[in-house]
């Protein structure tokens, strides 16, 4: 591996996240917080649980940031085979989507300029992970947000427990300034994680993506429809997202939604 590869954005971002995570954890242990008091009293269950949650959130972060988000396979194949496969899969009412970089583009996929690949069920490119969030890693991304929010809120409580305002201002700033800065940082991260988790749970419940929600007026298969063609109801949406069931192509779901609308119109007439 070339030395300059160690300075790539992905390595720098993941290293920064790891250092920041353990740095904040160390600050909470070194100051007079509830975490340190539990440790001094010999009550090790809660400190160990906190450390395990921090470790689990970090491992989940690395898993989401390093795994394949669902890249579209661009293995060279004869043009006739690609055309026949896509024609059989996509109903004739739906025009084939093309990417100038990755040939035929499946429904709900999008080309990411940062990753330079097309990603299935593209949600967004996350700069904090330096990876796309797509069909394969989106469930783990939501799980990471939930676990990270638990760790942040617990860390916020621990930081607050160590802030004692009875000392003179100058002495307090020298003894608790770093802890107070950590408290402000954890507050900011907790707010961001809460908003992200709430928005993604809403999108998952309606079976849509961030890209589709924001750019529906620019997406060919959505801009002429009044409702989301992929919404199968709350239970089926959640089951499909977290468990991968029922399986099936997005083109099929789109066509089923199209048939249901046509049937509804005929019954209304």
From TrEMBL:
GO terms for biological process: protein targeting to membrane. It is an enzyme of class 2 (transferase). Residues 96-215 form the Palmitoyltransferase DHHC domain. It is found in: Endomembrane system. Its main location: membrane. It catalyses: L-cysteinyl-[protein] + hexadecanoyl-CoA = S-hexadecanoyl-L-cysteinyl-[protein] + CoA. One of its GO terms (cellular component) is Golgi apparatus. Its EC number is 2.3.1.225. Keywords: Acyltransferase, Lipoprotein, Membrane, Palmitate, Transferase, Transmembrane, Transmembrane helix. Signal peptide: none annotated. It is a multi-pass membrane protein. The chain crosses the membrane at residues 12-32, 44-64, 141-165, 177-203. One of its GO terms (molecular function) is protein-cysteine S-palmitoyltransferase activity. InterPro entries: Palmitoyltrfase_DHHC (IPR001594), PFA4/ZDH16/20/ERF2-like (IPR039859). It comes from the Eukaryota. Pfam families: DHHC. The keyword Hydrolase does not apply. Belongs to the DHHC palmitoyltransferase family. The DHHC domain is required for palmitoyltransferase activity. This is Palmitoyltransferase.
